[in-house]
Amino acid sequence: MRKCLDARKSVVGGIALALALTGCAGSGNSGNSSDQTGPRTLTVWLMNGSAPQPLTDALHKEFQETHKDVTVKYEVQQWNGIQDKLTTALAGNDAPDVIEIGNTQAPKFAAAKVLTDLTEASSGFNKDQWLGSLKDSGSWDGKQFAVPFYAANRLVLYRKDMFEQAGVAAVPTSRQEWLDAISKLRAKFGADPEFQALYLPGQNWYTLLSFIYDEGGDIAKRDGTKFTATLDSAQAKAGLEFYKTLQEASGTKAPKDTDEQTPEQAGIFGQGKVAMMIALPWELATAAKNNPGLTAQTSAFPIPSKNSGATAPVFQGGSNLAVPAYSKDQDLAKDYLKLLSGAKYQSQFAKAGMIPGTSTDVAALEADPVNAAMAKASRNGRAVPATPTWGAIEAGQNPLKDMLTAYLTGAKTIGVATADANSALNKAFAG
Amino acid sequence: MTATVDTVSPAAAPPRAARPHRRPAGRVAPYLMLAPAVVILIALLGWPALQVLGISFRRLDLGELVRGEVAWIGLENYRAVLSDPEFWVIGLRTLVFTAACVVATVLIGLGIAVLMRHLDGFVRVALQLALVLAWATPIIATTTVFQWMFDQRYGILNKTLVALGFDGFAGHSWFGSGASTMTVIGLLILWQAVPFVAFTLYAGLLSASKELYEAASIDGAGPWQSFRTVSWPAVRPLLTMVAFLSVLWDFKVFTQVWAIKQGGPDGDSTTLPVLLYLKGISGSHFGVAAAIAVLMLLILVAVTWRYLRLLTRSPETEL
Q1: Cα–Cα distances in Å, from A403 out to A85, A96, A238, A259, B179?
Q2: CA B15: distance to chain centroid?
Q3: Which of A397, A400, A420 is most worth mutating to test chain B (most B CB atoms within 10 A of its CB)?
Q4: What is the pTM of this model?
Q5: How far apart are CA B104 and CA B102, in angstroms?
């Protein structure tokens, strides 16, 4: 609507002519709007803490230079309450033209038919190099509704000094080596009652996903748009069993009924009595806030696989970019995505410590040892089931967390725990 | 005597006395003065309530909301909610939880009120300060403190129990089962609800003058008898009111339940407000959520029917 008004002001002639030119009378059809003249505005919503400012500044400068009379209206949104804000914004006449959405939100909006189908346009967005996990989470019913933006995955942060003192020469590259390193660490430092070789709370379900994937299992299998939970499979059980093995071997004092954020694991790592934690790269900065020496003492390795030498597949969290169906400047939005998905801007994500969504070039991550470990694991990234209901599962009552706690505390046997979680998940999939 | 009577009688009494001398224009004036408040109340409370009722007869998921579609489906949402056995389990749980919270809140509140009446000077002020502080602390802050106290590894409760020789509580999970989780949530609600009830009942007790107690004791009444004959009549109407208010508050409490364990483990501490949130906000089934909201309202009306009737029949009635 705002765009229509702007155009009306500038076009000399009758209002009818202006309306015809801007396509206001009809729907927001991308075909017509490319004919229009006069200044236009491309509204872009990115999330707080996503694209670094130098990147967006350069990007918007270049976009405005190559698109005469177009102004990019760039708005940074807060994660808190974004779902409600998007819901109302996507419905209105004033829908933004490009939005960043969390990777679990894309199927929800796509299924509600409020995102533009980008399947055809994708070839212009560097599609050959897309990150698989984000591609999956941006698709619904065989069509692509969201374009990968950036992602991150968990890795094992470890204390180099402690490893050295305990005589662990090389970083573990298999589950067995990982367990061996833990026993060496406990043998060396175990006298200190505060020491934890690995901090692992009971509900770190992202880590559990790695183990399940590594066994060849998954949370659910897809049939078209329908998902069926597969937590009762032998592979999922094997993954859950290894979680318990690791948890018991680790000597962790973490609660079994909370996740890694309660209490925040970075704070506990920061106290200096923990040799390892499974975390995102930037949690090191949080840990080092009260313990500045930690940064130099800490490095990282990918979550080891049960197959020696390989890395375990990892859950990748991140963001996608989408074009709302009611956007009135879809042609511009697609041009914008094309520019942003190019190697030039994608490489800046790697520099900022994130895995670029549309470029396989992760060389810039190698400079930092922690980011390098993430880059190494990144090609083996996976996504949670791309169903409209997943967001609610993650934000609400997550059966995976209940399953972990029940099994680890011994409240349920592995058979009962996985069967219960499986039926809870199937119920949640049904919405 | 009571808060209800005090607020109502002055407003009702003057027009009755003045009416014979009023001209017609004067009779309209009070209504005109009331009008802004009534209009605002209708706009802010009545309209949304009607909206909720309307939405409960519609299919309104994310898609319908965003596309602005209106799809009437009659009683389908109600059928879906009522035919789900989970709703009945959760509904019963919510009622039991509410009843337990209300009874405990009112009893402890009454006990503290009587205690305050008998305490003097510094000790009473200290108790009152403690109550005010417990009441004034933000809900989420208290909830976080409770989470820490009951924490499996780092919680002070388990550490204290172990120090006292109960070794079985080392690493005991207070949030391991629904019943245990609900108990912790109930304690948390109690902690936050008791101060208001205690102060309200204390105010009622203050209205019974010390002389009455003296007279009672001269007549040879023991503590129990003087409570029954002097304190009880003074406090009874207020007790009914705070019990009624507590039912309303405890039935629809959401923040604490959600913050403690999101209605877990395995959904075993889910109450009706949590179910409403899961269906509506998390699951974007706004029609189903609206139906749950309407059902909750009906349950509340049924539970508080007696009090509502007393309230509407005549404000001057002793409750």
Answers
A1: 33, 40, 14, 13, 18
A2: 34
A3: A397
A4: 0.82
A5: 5
A209, containing H or E segment: helix A205-214
Tell me whether residues B63 and A91 touch, CB distance under 8 A: no
The full set of domains in chain B, from first to last, is 85-313 (1.10.3720.10)
pLDDT tens digits, one per residue of B110-152: 999 999 988 888 999 999 999 999 999 999 999 999 998 998 8
How many C-beta neighbours within 10 Å does residue A245 have?
Answer: 13
Length of chain B: 319
Indicate yes or no: CB of A87 within 8 angstroms of CB of B65.
Answer: yes
The candidate with the shortest Cα–Cα distance to A244, out of A300, A193, A175, is: A175
Rounded to the nearest 5 degrees, what angle is found at the Cα of B130, between the Cα atoms of B222 and B210? 30
Looking up tokens 């690791």 gives A246
Q: In this prediction, does ipTM exceed 0.85?
A: no
d(C-alpha A366, C-alpha A117), whole Å: 35
Contacts (Cβ under 8 Å, ≥6 apart) of B212: B230
DSSP string, B66-119: HHT---B-TTHHHHHHHT-HHHHHHHHHHHHHHHHHHHHHHHHHHHHHHHHHH-
Q: Decide if A254 touches B, using CB distance below 8 A.
A: yes
The predicted structure's pLDDT at residue A414: 96
pLDDT digit string, tens, across residues A183-199: 999 999 999 999 999 99
What number of residues does chain A have?
Answer: 431
